[in-house]
């Protein structure tokens, strides 16, 4: 029987293990932390009964991911819930741009932009499954839906800062700029519209759901599916040399998968990887970072905009110009005075996370890579700007620095939670430009982390794609 080792058990490592095991491969997963899941962890951090997501919290691509659609995780107890409003982006005048499930529902609230909004997103919303087939594949592949992908490509090639000029109202421009900011880079660069277009379409097609019981429920379900297929999972073990795998798996594995950053992969493969590929891995740039703050609040956030009070996710920054300026500062290594802040109100869709009138509020701001300061006060002030009285609702809070993030998960280099800088070159070359970006240059060893296509997010497609390639390349 073919044997495989998977180093790392984030969503991509687990997806690779499940894909391999379904094909009859004997798989061992080795995880350095005490439990599998990577960023899919939840805990009662501050108050009894109040459950926080420690990293990933809202999952725009989970229910539309081709990999997740192929696995019956519901049989292991996983369920999703949706808030009434998927996303709200409040402005200083008390209004907000909002994303709802359904392109017509979203467009109806956008006034003069309604017709153009509907024309722009309806083709992608109505064919989200077809779109996901191509956008979650490696950049250089034979298109399954060429006309749809070409239309999508024409939209995403334009810098987000230029793309949002099509919209006539401040609310619509701010709404799109905020979603585009999920790319974690300057919004005046080519391809910076890519994440904004995809996540906006996904929100209207499938919503931005939260996992009932916390993101840990996704990890538990994926782990249960893997173990049902015979996958062995070892936790609390750090792999520093691939020779360890011989002992850990009971023999040298036929194929190996690294759910790690490119830099960590280069360290593991030192002396074996071709020089050119090793250089590319070591030069792979981390992106801007996240600075998380976890609050426990009493009664809810007093947003001025009504839609924000009903939204599972709230983008806090200001108008489109504010978002562009904040992302530009982060890319230049400057901490913005008014950063882009993402507020997760998961409890609105999943009340089981709350304890009475105490609710978890999981928040992070975009900050420069490796930012060494404390952004807690700046983040609190940003929320207070759009929700006067917010400070009075705070019962307790805790923050994590970029160093804390990397210490908790070495893949989060300098606090980068998306697996690498998303400038136009590296967005396509993750970590190298190739039809087979999962190959490390070492026979039988594949990279399967979020630093490979299609990138960050709880969708499992990087791991699934890497495992699919390995299965195709296995000797018969």
From TrEMBL:
UniProt keyword annotations, A-Z: Hydrolase
UniProt xrefs under InterPro entries: ClpP/crotonase-like_dom_sf (IPR029045), FAD/NAD-bd_sf (IPR036188)
Gene3D superfamilies from the UniProt entry: FAD/NAD(P)-binding domain
GO terms assigned for molecular function: hydrolase activity
Top-level division of the source organism's lineage: Bacteria
Pfam families for this protein: NAD_binding_8
Family annotation (PANTHER family): DEHYDROGENASE-RELATED, PHYTOENE DEHYDROGENASE
Name of the featured protein: Metal-dependent hydrolase family protein
Species classification: Bacteria, Bacillati, Actinomycetota, Actinomycetes, Mycobacteriales
């Amino acid at each position: 029987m073919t044997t495989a080792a998977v180093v790392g058990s984030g969503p991509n490592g687990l997806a690779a293990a499940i894909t391999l095991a379904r094909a009859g491969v004997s798989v061992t997963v080795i995880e350095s932390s005490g439990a599998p899941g990577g960023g899919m962890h939840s805990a009662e951090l501050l108050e009894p009964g109040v459950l926080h997501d420690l990293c990933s919290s809202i999952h725009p691509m989970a229910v539309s991911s081709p990999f997740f659609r192929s696995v019956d995780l519901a049989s292991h107890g996983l369920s999703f819930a949706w808030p009434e409003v998927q996303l709200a982006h409040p402005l200083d005048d008390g209004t907000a741009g909002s994303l709802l499930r359904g392109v017509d529902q979203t467009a109806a609230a956008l006034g003069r932009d309604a017709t153009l909004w509907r024309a722009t997103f309806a083709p992608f919303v109505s064919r989200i499954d077809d779109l996901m087939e191509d956008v979650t594949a490696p950049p250089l592949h034979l298109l399954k839906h060429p006309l749809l992908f070409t239309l999508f490509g024409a939209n995403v090639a334009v810098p987000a800062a230029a793309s949002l000029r099509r919209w006539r109202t401040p609310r619509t421009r701010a709404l799109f700029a905020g979603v585009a900011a999920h790319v974690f880079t300057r919004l005046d660069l080519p391809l910076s519209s890519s994440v904004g277009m995809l996540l906006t379409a996904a929100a209207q097609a499938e919503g931005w759901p939260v996992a009932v019981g916390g993101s840990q429920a996704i990890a538990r379900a994926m782990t249960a599916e893997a173990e049902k297929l015979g996958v062995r999972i070892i936790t609390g073990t750090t792999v520093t040399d691939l020779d360890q795998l011989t002992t850990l798996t009971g023999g040298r594995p036929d194929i190996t998968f690294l759910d790690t950053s490119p830099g960590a992969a280069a360290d593991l493969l030192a002396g074996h990887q071709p020089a050119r590929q090793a250089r590319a891995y070591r030069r792979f740039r981390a992106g801007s970072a996240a600075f998380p703050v976890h609050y426990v609040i009493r009664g809810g956030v007093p947003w001025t905009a009504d839609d924000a009070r009903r939204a599972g996710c709230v983008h806090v920054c200001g108008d489109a110009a504010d978002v562009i300026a904040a992302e530009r500062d982060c890319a230049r290594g400057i901490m913005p005075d008014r950063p882009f802040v993402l507020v997760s109100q998961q409890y609105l869709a999943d009340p089981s996370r709350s304890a009475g009138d105490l609710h978890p509020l999981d928040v992070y701001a975009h900050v420069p890579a490796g930012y060494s300061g404390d952004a807690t006060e700046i983040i609190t002030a940003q929320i207070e700007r759009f929700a006067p009285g917010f400070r009075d609702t705070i019962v307790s809070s805790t923050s994590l620095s970029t160093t804390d993030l990397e210490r908790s998960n070495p893949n989060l280099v300098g606090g980068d939670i998306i697996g690498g800088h998303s400038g136009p070159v590296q967005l396509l070359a993750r970590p190298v430009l190739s039809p087979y970006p999962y190959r490390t240059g070492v026979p039988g060893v594949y990279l399967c982390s979020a630093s490979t296509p299609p990138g960050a997010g709880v969708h499992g497609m990087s791991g699934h794609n890497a495992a699919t390639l390995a299965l195709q390349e296995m000797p018969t």
